[in-house]
Design goal:
The chain is α/β, with parallel strands linked by helices and about 140 residues long. The protein has a single domain, classed as Sugar-phosphate isomerase, RpiB/LacA/LacB (Ribose 5-phosphate Isomerase B, Chain: A, 3-Layer(aba) Sandwich). The protein has helices spanning about 10-25, 45-55, 70-75, 90-100, 115-130, 135-140; strands spanning about 1-5, 30, 60-65, 85, 105-110. The longest helix has 14 residues, at about 45-55. It is globular and about 45 Å long. It starts with a strand and ends with a helix.
């Protein structure tokens, strides 16, 4: 599976950590940037690139980071075919339901609100959880 990564300056450190781990786990990882920390970066440039690539490759996923993850998800969800969910800690049920019910293909993580171990657990669960393919969920997703 191809996984596209992107971030703003607040999530840069977590992006770099998960990139290394995913590569070690034999995922095909494409880093859409940035390649260095710049507090004045314009995260929509990086996030929209990742979102467009996920939309073109339905079997792929995207993991994006931001301070809260909110703005990043808003940018990603403007791309037709993207279903980005936001997670900034708390219940792992949100992670599971985003895949099981909504077939989320992008995960936006609020880097200022999660620890590295929490992030790793969430990503592992998100990547492992399949979409249910239940008729009611398919019907709803098709109305997006």
């Amino acid at each position: 599976m191809t996984i596209y990564l992107a971030t703003d300056h607040a999530g840069f450190e977590l992006k770099e950590k998960i990139k290394k781990i995913l590569i070690e786990q034999c995922y095909d990882v494409i880093d859409c940037g940035p390649d260095h920390v710049d507090k004045d970066d314009d995260y929509p440039d990086f996030i929209s690139k990742a979102a467009r690539l996920v939309a073109k490759k339905p079997e792929s996923r995207g993991i994006i980071f931001g301070g809260s993850g909110q703005g990043e998800a808003m940018v990603a969800n403007r791309v037709t075919g993207v279903r980005a969910t936001v997670w900034y800690g708390g219940s792992m049920d949100i992670i599971k339901l985003s895949r099981d019910h909504n077939d989320a293909n992008m995960l936006s993580i609020g880097a200022r609100f999660v620890t590295e171990p929490e992030m790793l657990e969430a990503i592992k669960l998100w990547l492992a959880t399949p979409f249910s393919n239940a008729e009611r969920h398919l019907r709803r997703i098709n109305k997006f």
